[in-house]
Amino acid sequence: MNPHDTMEEIVSSARKLGVESIAAGFTRSHDRMVRFSNNSITVTNSWETESPTVYLMSGGKRAACKIEEQNPNELKRVIEGLVNTMKVTPAGDTVFELPQGPFKYQAIPGLYDKKLAEAETELVDAVETSINASKKEGASRVSGVVISHAWERYVLTSERAEGSDRGTEIEMTVRAFVTEDASGQGISLGTSLDQFDPEEAGRTAGRIARMAQNPEAGRPGRYKVVFGPTVLANLLNRVGDSASAYTVDLGLSFFRDMVKNKVASDALTMYDDSRLPNGPGSIAMDDEGYPTQQINLIENGRLETYLHTSYTAAKFKAKLTGSAKFEAGMAGMIPAARNLVLEGGDRTLEDLFDMAQDGLYITNNWYTRFQNYQTGDFSTICRDGIFEIKDGKLTRPVKGLRLSDNMIRILQSVKALSEERQWIRWWEVDIPTLTPYALVEGVGITTANK
User: Fold this and answer.
1) What is the predicted pLDDT for the residue at 59?
2) Up-side HSE of residue 427: CA atoms within 13 Å toward CB?
């Protein structure tokens, strides 16, 4: 079915049933994936998806769903079911309405690459390039995945907001091993083949793995730590989550009641830019049809605002931020970051090691978990290469460590940032994040089994 016809049918059917406000969406995507393990390709796959979405609001009640079948009878049946659910759902405590259109949407440069949209053999070539680069650095076996994604989005609301955009993305995660306990990871992410660098991803993974050979057991304590971009992006994703008014409203944010307060060091300025040229998460309009924009989240350490949908903006008496993202279920829309950007500093990585003098360099982490969302107490396992810093130089590799600390304390203890930055996204980092290396003081380190 034509995306516009599908969305028109959703809006028309819901209106006939007395729904006050409707946001219809439609996404179409074509994905290709190549997995590799032990230096060989193990899986190749491609798939196409089409997903209409429905978001309904009436009398302070909300309902939403994603529709699997797109024929008109199924659309009407689903909408009738949502309306019947809303009839027995208690009304919320906030009166709000969708953004009033129409709006003009500015095109964002660098989101679509025709060569990437049609790429097939290029993914296989990228895997071979990455494996060879890792092995050249000393890796004995290399594994990972590369995925390309070509997408189209359409939005239509009952409040006369209507728009569409399209884009492409490619991302690669590489893990290289010299021995079982000497591993490294590399990542490449971009919206075009020209931005994609599988050789550097493989080279980085192989180099870290080679340096991590023969690790000794690390010691718990408080350290000056240089975080690699992969670790910092993971932590910044949690910052982005906590800056969502949705998590604040649920009591799952460590930024509750902290707007305009100091939450980080002066060195830290961070924003969400859904309009960033070449941004892997960039879109022209949010899922409520409101134009996207750059939102300053933290400026010189001060929390400036939360991310908002029309619902949370009304509840918090705040301005719309163009951050609505469809979420099936009763929430319907949640405010979410699309491209997190941490401004870089003026240091090199070697400068950060020199400033630390004695400490740790952590390149990767897995399984970040919060003991208390409201206070920001968390822990995460350090993975792949971990190295001691002595007299400003990397020395022996260590293993068996866990980062156990408080998110606000980490943010407030950032001392310096590198000028070099890297885009990060992989299965531990959902939101594309452009981040430098960071030197953080007094980081809590425990052993992984405690």
Assistant:
1) 86
2) 10
- CA dihedral over 286, 256, 314, 332, signed as positive or negative: positive
Contacts of residue 259, Cβ cutoff 8 Å, sequence gap at least 6:
303, 304, 305, 306
Predicted model pTM: 0.95
Helix-helix angle 121-136:198-211, to 10 degrees? 30
pLDDT band at 331 (very low <50, low <70, confident <90, very high): confident
- Residue 449 has a pLDDT of 62
Query: What confidence tens digit (pLDDT) does each residue in 40-79 have?
Result: 999 999 999 999 999 999 988 999 999 877 777 888 899 9
Among 306, 282, 286, 288, smallest CA distance to 296 is for 306
CB 274 within 8 A of CB 288: no
> What is the structure's pLDDT at 174?
98
Q: Residue 77: CB partners within 8 Å, gap ≥ 6?
A: none
Query: Which tokens go with 259?
Result: 């707007």
- Residues 243, 297: contact at Cβ < 8 Å? yes
**CA neighbor of 280 nearest in space, from 154, 106, 127, 426:** 426
Burial class (CB in 10 A: 0-12, 13-18, 19+), 173: buried
CB atoms within 10 A of CB 447: 14
The answer to whether 42 and 35 are in contact (CB under 8 A) is yes
Q: Which residues of 57-74 are buried (b: 16+ CB within 10 A; e: fewer)?
A: bbebbbbbbebeebeeee
Distance CA 311, CA 2 (A): 30
The residues facing 67 across adjacent strands are none
Would you state the pLDDT for residue 450?
Answer: 44
